[in-house]
Amino acid sequence: MAPATSSTSSAITLNINGEKHHLPVDHRTTLLDALRERLDLTGTKKGCDQGQCGACTVLVDQRRAVSCLTLAVAAEGREITTIEGVAEGDELHPVQQAFLDLDGYQCGYCTPGQICSAIAVIEEHAAGRPSAVTEDLSPEAAPQPLTPEEIRERMSGNLCRCGAYVSIVRAVARAAEAHAETRTAGAKETTA
Ligand code: FES
Ligand code: FES
């Protein structure tokens, strides 16, 4: 039997959706292949395998990452969330629910990546991080709304071959509104 660790492979531990997975990997193995081929987490999709379509998007330490360009060994010690881990038990994540309610998909192949990206986009916007189309970048600028233009720009790394973009933008906007309402209610509770 081959040793778990050699000059070209290592035994690593990946923390995925709150569970630790121990596995030996060739150093060239991408996170995408580790998820799909080694751990049977096939919700994350392979489209282009070269960082251009966004189908393989997952969250690494709450930031989105294309798993086809992330080496599995580089993901060790990070908190990885895949589409299989975004729901709370039987309760869908608000972004999943919005995609379902507003038909934010057709064939569904790009959808796991779209949803993971959208979750991060909403957090990035709520944290005040600007995009290439954010107009007022001055430090004293009031928080700016997550407009359809902002959503299109921030989600531009996620392609949809079915062209479901109109519904995807609506779904992200709906989920962002729900997220903002939850934050406002939480802030009121804290100050009450
Ligand atoms: S499969 Fe990773 S970006 Fe296309
Ligand atoms: S829903 Fe088919 S590729 Fe996006």
Portion of residues within helices:
25-40%
User: How many structural domains can be distinguished in the coordinates?
Assistant: 2
What is the mean predicted local confidence, pLDDT? 94
Radius of gyration: 18 Å
Helix count from the secondary structure assignment: 5
Biggest sheet strand order reads: 2-1-5-3-4
User: Which class of the largest domain in CATH terms?
Assistant: Mainly Alpha
Question: Quick one: overall form?
Answer: globular
Strand content: 5-15%
Largest sheet: 5 strands, mixed
CATH architecture of the largest domain: Orthogonal Bundle
CATH topology of the largest domain: DNA polymerase, domain 1
What is the CATH superfamily of the largest domain?
Answer: [2Fe-2S]-binding domain
Describe the structure.
- It is built from five helices and five strands, in the order E-E-H-E-E-E-H-H-H-H.
- By secondary structure, it is an alpha+beta fold.
- The chain has a five-stranded mixed β-sheet with strand order 2-1-5-3-4, with helices on both faces.
- The longest helix is centred in the last third of the chain and has 27 residues.
- The chain starts with 8 loop residues before the first strand and ends with a helix.
- The chain binds FE2/S2 (inorganic) cluster (FES) (2 copies).
- It comes from Streptomyces globisporus.
